[in-house]
């Protein structure tokens, strides 16, 4: 909003005539209802009747001026709210305070969700779009944006999932922001590409059913039929989100040109389809091949890998966050297992709540999925950004120069420079681009937590097995004794099977 217009807006707020005109609205306000010190503050701050305060004890300020003052106080609050977020969203001050940590890898989205009455996706979404100046850039109407984000929250809440809910959507969007801003990848992107990436992260699991693609396929669900068993959930997330974005009440893309809309949509579709886990190994293989080629990495592939890593990033966050996400995800898996049991279907991997080895499966997920993904992504960031950093250092007439770097950086994030290769968990090799890689330490830390947990679980299983055996043995002995007169040769089982594993245990839980 241009400065002139905002000044006019503020003047209008404070036009004394306006206050006087609306004085009557407050006429029923009982002046005594306002405590003396509040009345003095209001009178002192928002009215011209400075003398009122000096007269304290002689007489109460005239009712009219108190009413003016209260009206002015309300106006100040409204004006503050308007200014506290360019999109017209009122962000409660205690939520605003937590959003100050948006640039941190250890950002606690659960805390924001609790403080924000379950609206973390709305607040994180607003803050990110504002941080990259996209609301202004794409003239996004604040009511449309409000409706869009609330629709997203409703969709994420449709199936009451323990894990795939609006907090996950907010968490993935914030993690994508961290990667874009801390590595400075954001400077390699156009505004439209940043816009598409943030929206892709926010919508990527919209209306998730809390069950896997395979469950949809095995049960022949409507979605599986609609999408021919291919990336069933991911296709739905995209389709349903674009229907919301096209709706007249929540059309946040209204001011994109036809070409911009095409580019935006193509990017979002590619990024969200790439979050289909069945594509994981292919995606890493393709990226590794590209890293070995002299050509530049193409942006949709790079951004798809960033979103995929953010989507499976909680094992690379602080333990308090990761262990909470794990509990929620496994509960969601177990609920699917319960339904599979009811339907007479075999348990999907990790879905049997009675035999899944959680700690072991998490060690496997970190070793075989998360760690390799982040390692490939880190190499990809290196490859993309090192040449840009060299160019901008030489201040050659380059697409991105330091000024552009600084200008964009001040717009997109207020964190310190990334060239501090000495900072903990940062990736830098001689002459290479350096940026923070906090995920590396967290992955090591979490793996050791799971190893401790796995050892304790194994001990517990062994103890239970021994207990069961001895119980069985006792009941065998007692029934053998009583029936010994008839059958002298029954064998009493006394040893636990050699590998100390319960019969239902398989590798990694299934
Ligand atoms: N065994 C585990 N699998 C996990 C964990 N966190 C995520 N995942 C899997 O990744 C996909 C991510 O895609 P999404 O779009 O569905 O979020 C998820 O469905 C799981 O299959 C984990 O901690 N352990
Ligand atoms: Mg998904
Ligand atoms: Zn997800």
Automatic annotation (TrEMBL):
AMP binds at residues 164-168, 205, 311, 362. Zn(2+) 2 binds at residue 205. GO terms for molecular function: 3',5'-cyclic-nucleotide phosphodiesterase activity; metal ion binding. Keywords: cGMP, Hydrolase, Metal-binding. Residues 412-429, 470-485 have a biased composition (Low complexity). This is Phosphodiesterase. Binds 2 divalent metal cations per subunit. Site 1 may preferentially bind zinc ions, while site 2 has a preference for magnesium and/or manganese ions. Residues 452-466 have a biased composition (Basic and acidic residues). Pfam families: PDEase_I, PDEase_I_N. Its EC number is 3.1.4.-. Belongs to the cyclic nucleotide phosphodiesterase family. The active site is at 164 (proton donor). GO terms for biological process: signal transduction. Residues 492-501 have a biased composition (Polar residues). Residues 410-433, 452-510 are annotated as: Disordered. Zn(2+) 1 binds at residues 168, 204-205, 311. SUPFAM superfamilies: HD-domain/PDEase-like. Its cofactor is a divalent metal cation. Residues 87-457 form the PDEase domain.
């Amino acid at each position: 909003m241009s400065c002139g217009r905002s000044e006019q807006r503020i003047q209008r707020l404070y036009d004394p005539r306006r206050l006087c005109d609306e004085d009557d609205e407050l006429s029923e306000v009982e002046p005594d209802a306002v405590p003396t010190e509040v009345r003095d503050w209001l009178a002192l701050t928002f009215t011209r009747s400075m003398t009122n305060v000096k007269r304290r004890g002689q007489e109460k300020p005239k009712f009219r001026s108190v009413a003016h003052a209260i009206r002015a106080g309300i106006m100040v609050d409204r004006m503050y709210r308007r200014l506290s977020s360019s999109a017209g969203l009122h962000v409660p001050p205690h939520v605003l305070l937590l959003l100050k940590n948006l640039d941190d890898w250890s950002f606690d989205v659960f805390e924001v969700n609790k403080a924000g009455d379950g609206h973390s996706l709305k607040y994180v979404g607003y803050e990110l779009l504002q941080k990259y100046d996209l609301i202004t850039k794409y003239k996004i109407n604040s009511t449309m944006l409000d409706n869009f984000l609330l629709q997203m929250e409703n969709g994420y809440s449709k199936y009451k999932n323990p894990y795939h809910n609006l907090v996950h959507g907010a968490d993935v969007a914030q993690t994508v922001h961290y990667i874009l801003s801390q590595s400075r990848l954001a400077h390699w992107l156009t505004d439209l590409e940043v816009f598409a990436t943030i929206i892709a992260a926010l919508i990527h699991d919209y209306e998730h059913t809390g069950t896997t693609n395979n469950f949809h396929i095995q049960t022949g669900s409507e979605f599986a039929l609609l999408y021919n068993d291919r990336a069933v959930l991911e296709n739905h997330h995209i389709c349903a989100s674009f229907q919301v974005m096209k709706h007249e009440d929540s059309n946040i893309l209204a001011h994109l040109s036809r070409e911009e809309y095409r580019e935006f949509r193509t990017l979002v579709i590619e990024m969200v389809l790439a979050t289909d886990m069945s594509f994981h190994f292919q995606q890493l293989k393709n990226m590794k091949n590209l890293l070995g080629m002299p050509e530049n990495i193409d942006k949709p592939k790079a951004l798809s890998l960033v979103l995929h890593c953010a989507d499976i990033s909680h094992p690379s966050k602080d333990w308090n966050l990761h262990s909470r996400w794990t509990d929620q995800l496994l509960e969601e898996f177990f609920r699917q297992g319960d339904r599979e049991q009811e339907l007479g279907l075999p348990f999907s991997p990790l879905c049997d709540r009675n035999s899944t080895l959680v700690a072991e499966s998490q060690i496997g997920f970190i070793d075989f999925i998360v760690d390799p993904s982040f390692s490939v992504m880190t190499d990809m960031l290196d490859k993309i950004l090192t040449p840009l950093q060299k160019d901008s250092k030489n201040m050659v007439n380059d697409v991105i120069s330091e000024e552009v770097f600084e200008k964009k950086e001040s717009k997109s994030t207020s964190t310190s420079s990334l060239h501090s290769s000495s900072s903990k968990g940062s990736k830098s090799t001689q002459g290479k681009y350096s940026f923070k890689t906090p995920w590396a330490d967290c992955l090591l830390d979490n793996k050791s937590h799971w190893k401790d947990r796995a050892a304790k679980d194994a001990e517990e299983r062994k103890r239970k097995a021994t207990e069961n055996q001895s119980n069985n043995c006792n009941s065998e002995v007692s029934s053998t004794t009583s029936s010994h007169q008839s059958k002298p040769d029954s064998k009493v089982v006394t040893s636990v099977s050699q590998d100390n594993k319960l019969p239902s245990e398989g590798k990694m839980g299934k």
